[in-house]
């Protein structure tokens, strides 16, 4: 009987740290945002994000994939932005701006805390029957470490594109939409 009570009390005492850990971790895991505190002032980040609107052209026996539109967004460590567009082979004038510090820290934290830099730069094959699609590329340099990833839009491949890639893509697309106004 005493032995049974000792086991129960040990079980109850052991459950307390587990319960506290759950109370702390569940809100962090269910948040939609990455904590900005993950980025610090010593981090250096440079990003080059490219989007191509591609079209497959068939010339009888041969095929060629050409870009109808290419957008390039460059973000420097100080938040300096450069946005270039080439449409139908014609380069538009560059747009330059500066990213506010909170947005820059959000992007830094997203890349730093999600394991983005550890994603292998594997290739995602494009399906044969797809004739028009968007292909993106992001080259990130974080504290001297470089990672470059290429991927087509999800509907153009049967490969699984990790959600972190689409999260980074959405943040960078938002920057493009703000600078493109």
Describe the structure.
By secondary structure, the protein is an alpha+beta fold. It has two domains: 2-31; 38-179, Mago nashi protein (2-Layer Sandwich). 33% of the residues lie in helices and 34% in strands. It has three helices and seven strands. It has helices at residues 2-30, 101-113, 163-179; strands at 45-59, 62-75, 80-87, 90-91, 95-98, 132-142, 145-152. Strands 1, 2, 3, 4, 5, 6 and 7 form a seven-stranded antiparallel β-sheet that branches. The longest helix is centred in the N-terminal third of the chain and has 29 residues, at 2-30. Mean pLDDT is 81; it is low at 18-30.
Layout of secondary structure:
Elements: H1 2-30, E1 45-59, E2 62-75, E3 80-87, E4 90-91, E5 95-98, H2 101-113, E6 132-142, E7 145-152, H3 163-179
Antiparallel strand pairs: 1-2, 1-6, 2-3, 3-4, 3-5, 6-7
In one word, what is the shape? Answer: globular
Give the strand tally: 7
Q: Give the helix tally.
A: 3
- SSE string, helix = H, strand = E? HEEEEEHEEH
Rounded to an integer, what's the Rg over CA atoms? 23 Å
Query: What's the CATH topology name of the largest domain?
Result: Mago nashi protein
Q: Please bin the fraction of helical residues.
A: 25-40%
Q: Per CATH, which architecture of the largest domain?
A: 2-Layer Sandwich
Backbone structural class = alpha+beta
N→C terminal distance: 75 Å
What's the level 1 CATH class of the largest domain?
Alpha Beta
* Structural domain count: 2
The parts where pLDDT drops under 50 for at least 5 residues are 18-30
How big a fraction of the residues is strand?
Answer: 25-35%
Chain-averaged pLDDT: 81
Q: What is the chains' assembly state?
A: single chain
Largest sheet: 7 strands, antiparallel
